[in-house]
Amino acid sequence: MINIHHSPGVYLAIAAFLFAAGVYGLLRRRTLIGMLIAGELIFSAASLNFMTFNRFWRRTRRWVRYLCCSSWDWPRRRWPSR
After folding, report:
1. By the number of CB atoms within 10 A of the CB, which of 31, 32, 56, 77 ranks highest?
2. pLDDT of 61
3. Which residue has the higher pLDDT, 64 or 45?
């Protein structure tokens, strides 16, 4: 049996499909809900790319952690607890 989850190409191909479906949805949909769902597909593709880079490329691990966690920690760093 072939283990396809050990190669980053599979995840990047899925992310490319999600991104293409999101762009197509943004261009074809006229309603706000359809456009929001298409935008959500684009964000899912970006998230999958970040997870793939974090899993397979060790040098980018610090950058991915910084990009993902810096926005979550912003309120705590901005206003320290008293």
Report:
1. 56
2. 54
3. 45
Residue labelled with tokens 């490329």: 57
Q: Which is more confident, 6 or 58?
A: 6
Q: What is the pLDDT of residue 9?
A: 85
Q: What is the radius of gyration, based on Cα positions, of the chain?
A: 17
Angle at 57 between CA 53 and CA 58, to 5 degrees: 120
State the amino acid at position 57 in one-letter form.
W
In the chain, domain spans: 7-77
Q: How far is CA 53 from CA 13, 49, 65, 70, in A?
A: 13, 6, 10, 17
DSSP sequence for 9-72: HHHHHHHHHHHHHHHHHHHH--SHHHHHHHHHHHHHHHHHHHHHHHHH-GGGHHHHHHHHHHHH
